[in-house]
Structures are given as C-alpha cells and as structure tokens.
Amino acid sequence: MDLSYFFELFVGGLTRGSIYALIALGYTMVYGIIKLINFAHGEIYMIGAFTALIIASVLSFTGMNPVLIFLIASVLAIFFSAAYGVTMEKIAYTPLRGSQRLSALISAIGMSMFLQNYVLLAQTSDFLPFPELVPDFKFLKPVEHLISSTSFLILITTAIVMVLLTYLIKFTRTGKAMRATSQDAKMAQLLGINISRIITITFIIGSSTAALGGVLISTHIGQLNFYIGFIAGIKAFVAAVLGGIGSIPGAVLGSFVLGWTESFGTGYISSDYEDVFAFLFLIIILIFRPSGILGRPENKKV
Fold first, then answer.
1. Is the pTM of this model over 0.85?
2. How far apart are CA 235 and CA 45, in angstroms?
3. CA–CA gap between residue 161 and residue 150 (Å, rounded)
4. For a Cys-Cys bond, which of 25, 222, 224, 259 suits 218, CB 3.0-4.6 Å?
5. Binning pLDDT at 50, 70 and 90, where does residue 256 land?
6. Which of 233, 226, 270 is nearest to 124 (CA)?
7. Which pLDDT band, with edges at 50, 70 and 90, does 246 fall under?
8. Contact (Cβ atoms closer than 8 angstroms) between residue 108 and residue 89
9. Where are the alpha helices (DSSP H) in 35-141?
10. How far apart are CA 236 and CA 20, in angstroms?
C-alpha cells in the first residue's frame, strides 16, 4: 500500500468531512430544537460563498492585503447569511409552528427552490472563479503534496468552531436553555425560557457555520455556482442522519465518516460512484442502526 497516497486520501476525506460538519451542525441543531429538517440550509451555505465572492471582488480593487480581504469577506458573509437564516425562519417556519411537520417540510423545500432561483437570476448559472486569498503556509512546505494551505485552514477552523460550539452548549446559560428546549419545549417555556429567542439563536448559529463552510470550500476549490448549496446540503443531511439527527457529536462524526467514505471510495475504486458510496454507506448503517451512529431511539409514551 502506498502510504503517501493513503494519507492524501485521508486528509482529503477529513477536509470534506469538515465542510460537511459545518453544514450538518445547522441541520441537527434546528432538528433538535423544533424537529424540522431545514432543506433550505444548503442554500444559506451557497449564499455565504457568493457574498464572500462579491465582497472579495470589490475589495481586490483597493489593493488591500489578500489575507485581510479574506477575513473581511468571511465575517461579512457570516453576518449576511445569519440575517438570511433568521429572515427565512420568521417568514417560512414561524407561521407554521404548531402545525403538521409536513407543512413545514414543504415550506423548507419551497424556500430552497426560491433561494436557488433567486441567486441564479441575480448572478449566473456558470461557475465563477473564487480569488486565491489564502497564502501558502511555509511550515507546510515539507508536506505540501499531502495537505494544502486551504485544507489546513479548513481543518483548523472546523476544530475551533467545534470547541466554541461545545463550550456554548455545555457551559453557557444560552446553551442550557437550548438543551432544555430540545428536551421539552413546553416545559422549558413554563420555566420562563423564551422559545422564540432560542430558535432564532439556533438559526443564527447554524447559518453562520454553514456560511463559513461555503467560504472555505470556495477558497479551497477556487470556484462556485448557484447549485453548490443543493449538493452540499444533501450530503450534510446524509451526514447528520448517519451520525444521529439531533446529536451534535453525531453530526460531526457522521460528517467525517461520510468524507472518508467518499474519499477512499473514489481513490481506490472509481470517482464515478462518489455519491453512490455515500448513500450506500448510509443505507447499511441505518439497517443495523436506524437512529444513526450516536442517535438515540425515541421512546413514545402510550
């Protein structure tokens, strides 16, 4: 076995998994709070990438340092996408709160299609180049054939996000309110927790991480178009279900497992079956573990 090639595939899968994790977190957090699969979440990821592209393109004319441009574009993309996420929640989901789940699900699919076509009309259906803003890290030069600067940045950023999110959920007052709402929303409301505020915060966090993922992957690949949100969103949803929908550690684990499955499958078998590997592995896991790797089966009271 070529260890160099194996490690290259391993890092590639880790990079993919990191991006899936940043998106899957939004899926699993929203589901954990309001039991909704937000199928428009992938489009927030796409909007974040386009926002960063527009801002970076404008700032490039100023002669500003590329690293500073990248930071400004990333921060503004996060804020802009978070605003989109909250607006989407208020328009498409809040009026349907308390109704059948199917109604909210159809609304989510409708929002996904609307945002796709909105960006298509505002931009173009062609792939657009994303500027190279991340410099080559000198300390990676000995292993640059195995891991690129953008891959390293993706891994480090995802790790930091995971640590901050874990701290938020476990050790802050807002995190405790989110956990209480996830366990029993009605009881949490009786105890004085503002459910609407918690849901809004959840959408802000999920939209922010998705936008960050969109910016990072566009920088890594060097191009984007209006359809990237649909593909990435479906893959991230698979990762969330694979790990156990509603479980934050499960979303992360499922994302890495999915990333490695795709990377090793395409590397050692064929790239033509990349999507097949992902969904086949999901089917196998759900046959033996219907609730996902770290998910817990729901016990219904009779």
1. yes
2. 12
3. 16
4. 224
5. very high
6. 226
7. confident
8. no
9. 41-59, 66-88, 101-122
10. 5
pLDDT value for 69? 94
117 token code pair? 């076509």
83: pLDDT confidence band, cut at 50, 70 and 90? very high
- Residues 183, 191: Cα–Cα separation, whole Å: 13
Q: Please name the residue that has the structure tokens 């990072």.
A: 216
Q: Where are the alpha helices (DSSP H) in 123-225?
A: 149-171, 173-183, 185-190, 195-221
Q: Stretch 21-46: mean pLDDT, rounded?
A: 89
* Banded model confidence at residue 249, pLDDT cuts 50, 70, 90: confident
Both structure tokens of 191: 């105890």
* DSSP designation for 90: I
- Label residue 218 exposed, middle or buried (CB < 10 Å: 0-12, 13-18, 19+): buried
